[in-house]
Design goal:
The protein is an alpha/beta fold and 217 residues long. The chain has a single domain, classed as Peptidyl-tRNA hydrolase (Rossmann fold). 33% of the residues lie in helices and 20% in strands. The protein contains seven helices and eight strands, in the order αβαβββαββαβαααβ. The chain has helices spanning 4-9, 46-57, 93-103, 137-146, 167-170, 180-199, 202-209; strands at residues 26-31, 64-66, 69-76, 79-86, 111-117, 124-128, 153-157, 211-212. Helix 3 (93-103) packs across helix 4 and helix 6 runs antiparallel to helix 7 (202-209). The protein starts with a helix and ends in a 5-residue tail after the last strand.
Amino acid sequence: MKSRLHQVFTRPHRSDEPALAPGAPVFLIVGLGNPGREYRLTRHNIGFMCLDHLADRQDIIFSRVESRALVAKTAYQSNRLVLAKPQTYMNLSGQAVSSLARFYKVPLEHLLVAYDDVDLPLGTLRLRSGGGSAGQKGMQSIIERLGSQDFPRLRLGIGRPPGRMDAASYVLQEFHPGEVDLLAATLERAVDAILTFVTEDLVTAMNRYNGTMEIDN
């Protein structure tokens, strides 16, 4: 029997891909994680999970590989969305992101990167307009390859490691069964935040979605 975690994050594949609106503004939405089945449901891959939920909401799939990233494309309210999950492993994410940003001629203000943050509790979203990597290796790679830290990002809380557990080991663990409902609700809220960023603006998305949510048991 599949675990509750697998049930929540196993999505059906769809073969259709909506046409892109010609001449529309382009937004590059990136989720960070590690490729491979062994990492699929780990805390470090919450960025990938976020992009999977966004693709599911838009009824599209990651059907192609471009610039060492799995890519899905769609049109959304007169905007062109390019969703990307780098396949370079976390620490080299900047290779894929910088290449895609150049290819699609995406201005930095239209790039948004979603990734895990151990300093925020699960259920917390933090949108920011820029800043450093705070030690997150994937973000550090992106900043270095872009030559700038002035691009929007969405930090997804995964909580601190228990006791004296090393953070590097903690992020490679799967979420506990008791966390799955809060995780699913957080990812849905994250998708709402991303789409608000695209259709309205970053400040509106920050004011509406930054914060911590809870699930009643």
